[in-house]
Amino acid sequence: MTYLFKLADRAASTPFGTLTGHFVRGLFASENQQGESTLGLGLGMVLAVLASPGAFASIFLLEKYSTLMQFLRGHFIDPISASPSDEYFFIVLSMTITGLVMAMRWNRLIPDRRDFSNLAVLPIPIRNIFLANFTALLGLAFLFGLDVNGVSAVLFPLFVTLSIGTTGAFFRVAVSHFTSVFAASLFSFFGVFALAGLTMLLAPRRLLKPVSIALRVLLVVVLLTEFFSNLFLAFFAGRVPVRAASYVGLLPSFWFLGLYERMLGIAKPELAAMGLHGLYALACLAGVAIAAYSLCYRRHFLRLSESLDLIGAERWTRRVQVPEFLARILFRSAFERACSSFACKVLTRSEPHLMFLGAYLGIGLVLVAQAAMDASAAAQSARPEAPWLAVPLMIAFFLLSGLRFVFDMPATLDANWAFRVSIEDPYPEPRAVGRRIMRISVLPWQFAVLAPLTAQQFGWRIAVLHTGTVIALSLLLIDILLRRFRKIPFTCNAQRDIKQLLGRILGSVLSVLVAVPLLASIEGWMLTEPLRFSLLGLLLACSWWVLGKQRKEMLPFERALTFEDRPEPQFELLKL
């Protein structure tokens, strides 16, 4: 073992090893808007985080396969036959984690302008730069696959074979499990790798950035939707119906489930064939990824010399000029107008904000589409049912809550001095900018789209009541989300409070699962007797009165504009 460590140190000290290490460190470096690179999460921290989900998932399965728990329940199971449902979870988990990591570091898969300026002047052939970068990526692919699945490759087979108690059974399940999840992880890695290479190879230069961002957002949405979806629970045991095999065979996760069952010898013909398809697809995808990467590498790397000449040059951008009379109506001062313009530019130009908001809205779009499918049958009645009424409420909720999440993500802290020195006296209302952006995101489509569609389907009386309800609830949600908001969006140095973040996530989940369906059901009940909407008006008035009272009871420093958001201290010093 000592000899292997010495050999690794010797290889890392060579010029090629140093160059490979440079690209490995670059994958975990964060880049701010000024192009300065700072090391984000270290490799050790990333590996520890990636290994945690598989480890905890394996531990949670001990209760299912424990012979003692089976004895206490009075129900014994065949562990081998029951394992495919859990194996499918590990396959999807492996594909999701690897795909998300690659999607987040998409822009670091190919050397960027900074790498070119540092390496092009050195006497290093471009072939060596290519091989070093490819070696770093391939090594990280295997490292991620081992790390994500390493703990589960030991614990899961151990728990499954507890009742069998033989070493041969353990190794048979362990080899089958590790082969399937490791192949799934490599499939996800090479899939993102191939997509990035083909995008850089085929997309026009001017459209490369927006196309890549759109593909990354779509990829994140697909991965998270697959992970959280329960559409395929009926297929977990490996009993794939003949009618369903045609479209189930298109899902890569089922290919590797078939590989697992094939290696265990319990696969039915449909899944056994899918296992072979998974291996063939993995080999083809790896070939496509390597070919696309090789073709686009030289083209992209040589283009960087041209992009260096464009730094600081004037670029033409399309601007939307708001009419002066409309600007005076929307904004109370020139400062609010400037802050709103800055916020809109961040939302349309900043890659991290686009990625987060796009992924969040994409997941919301999937849920809205599911709700719309449930509402399609109910739309044939004379009055809208609860599923139909819930669709615009869900759209408004995801738009507003997504904006509230990204408001706390700073764009570039080195430039917020411009807002500090230009603040008017007296201070502007901190919530004004965020409130206007949120209102602009929901009110136009509620007036221009929701009202006419509802009128066409159910008549103008129901359209007025439904649109008014959605608008009133949206305005109330805006005030709730901005209750303690006292900063200009994207300009505050936020120190993340874990309790606050968990509270927001839990609130979002409860809102989608409980609040929105409940409000839609109440609205459907009120539509049967329009006089019942007076109760809604009373509840809304009470809610706004409570929010206003809480606002007045805040201390002056709790309402003042801030540029540094810190969590509340655990204790206060009197400093006597």
Number of helices: 24
Give the overall silhouette. Answer: globular
Helix and strand element order: HHEEHHHHHHHHHHHHHHHHHHHEHHHE
Radius of gyration: 28 Å
Q: What quaternary form is this?
A: single chain
| Percent helix | over 70%
Offer a concise description of the structure:
With 576 residues, the chain is mostly helical. The protein has helices at 2-12, 15-27, 43-60, 62-65, 67-73, 79-104, 113-119, 126-150, 152-160, 167-202, 208-228, 245-248, 252-264, 269-308, 324-330, 334-349, 351-378, 386-407, 417-421, 431-458, 460-481, 498-527, 533-553, 556-559; strands spanning 29-31, 37-39, 493-494, 564-565. Helix content is 72%, strand content 2%.
What's the structural blueprint in terms of helices and strands?
Layout: H1 2-12, H2 15-27, E1 29-31, E2 37-39, H3 43-60, H4 62-65, H5 67-73, H6 79-104, H7 113-119, H8 126-150, H9 152-160, H10 167-202, H11 208-228, H12 245-248, H13 252-264, H14 269-308, H15 324-330, H16 334-349, H17 351-378, H18 386-407, H19 417-421, H20 431-458, H21 460-481, E3 493-494, H22 498-527, H23 533-553, H24 556-559, E4 564-565
Parallel strand pairs: 3-4
Antiparallel strand pairs: 1-2
Provide a descriptive summary of the structure in words.
By secondary structure, the protein is mainly α. It is 72% helix and 2% strand. The strands form 2 sheets. Strands 1-2 form a two-stranded antiparallel ribbon. The termini are far apart. Helix 6 (79-104) runs antiparallel to helix 11 (208-228), helix 10 packs antiparallel against helix 13 (252-264) and helix 21 packs parallel to helix 23 (533-553). A hairpin with a 5-residue loop joins strand 1 (29-31) and strand 2 (37-39). It has helices at residues 2-12, 15-27, 43-60, 62-65, 67-73, 79-104, 113-119, 126-150, 152-160, 167-202, 208-228, 245-248, 252-264, 269-308, 324-330, 334-349, 351-378, 386-407, 417-421, 431-458, 460-481, 498-527, 533-553, 556-559; strands at residues 29-31, 37-39, 493-494, 564-565. Mean pLDDT is 76; it is low at 32-40, 230-245 and 308-316. The chain is globular, with a radius of gyration of 28 Å.
